[in-house]
Amino acid sequence: MYNKILVLGAAGQIGRILTKDLLEQTDSDLVLFGRNITDRLSIQNDRVELVNGDFSDEKTLEKAIQDVDLVFVNAMNRAQDIQVIAKVLESKPGIKMLGASMAGLHDDVPKALEEFAQQNLPSSYIEGEKESAQIIEDSNIDYTLLHLTWLYDDPSNTSYELVPTPEILKDAQVTREAVGQAVIDIITDEDQNKYKRKGFGVGEPNTHYDKPSFY
Ligand code: NAP
């Protein structure tokens, strides 16, 4: 079990859902990190500390990471940012990292979903995701990368499956709420070795469509 968790990008959509889940389902203390976070989050809780900062701000990151044993990274599309995060994490061995990455970076989604991503996302975004994942995979960090398929919101649906990368992830969609639950399930699993330095596709079972149903 992790005692103190740093959420990078905590004002983001998954960041907010995960924060709620962590407060409700674990005893961990939280450091919530993000741009202007003190203006954007109004959480009053003894277990929570708010830190204003950008991922590129190495000094602020170094300070925020003190005493933390797990870091959740809620955006992995800018390699410059991930380089800084990786540098700080590599200087503090023993900290676990979980990252919100995207599916399809390892030729691991069906052709139709790959084409849908290419048609609907800027190539610079996909390249940034690829480069960022590579930086983490090439590091000596104890990482778990969650390669998320297309996201939507439905608080009543936390159904998900983990598909070890690079097995094909056929699922076309998953809720952010299910991703939050997947993170909770992973970090509270007694067998942490299952996730060490591995990637997992994350999708909603039985959504083997050519594109997400909400597009
Ligand atoms: P989100 O709402 O955009 O949250 C990402 C958060 O990361 C934002 O709050 C953003 O800050 C923060 N962030 C990014 N760069 C930062 C930096 N340099 N310094 C500080 N904070 C930074 O995204 P989400 O819906 O929670 O999804 C989580 C991740 O999954 C996203 O990064 C997305 O790329 C990825 N993903 C999305 C999909 C999809 O279908 N949408 C599919 C696969 C993967 P600001 O709020 O200040 O901008």
UniProtKB/TrEMBL annotation:
Q: Which domain of life is it from?
A: Bacteria
- SUPFAM superfamilies for the chain: NAD(P)-binding Rossmann-fold domains (SSF51735)
Q: Where is the NAD(P)-binding domain?
A: 9-190
Single annotated GO MF: riboflavin reductase (NADPH) activity
Pfam families the UniProt entry points to: NAD_binding_10
Q: Which InterPro entries match?
A: NAD(P)-bd_dom (IPR016040), NAD(P)-bd_dom_sf (IPR036291), Polyketide_Oxido-like (IPR051606)
The residues the entry assigns to the signal sequence are: none
Protein's name according to its UniProt entry: NAD(P)-binding domain-containing protein
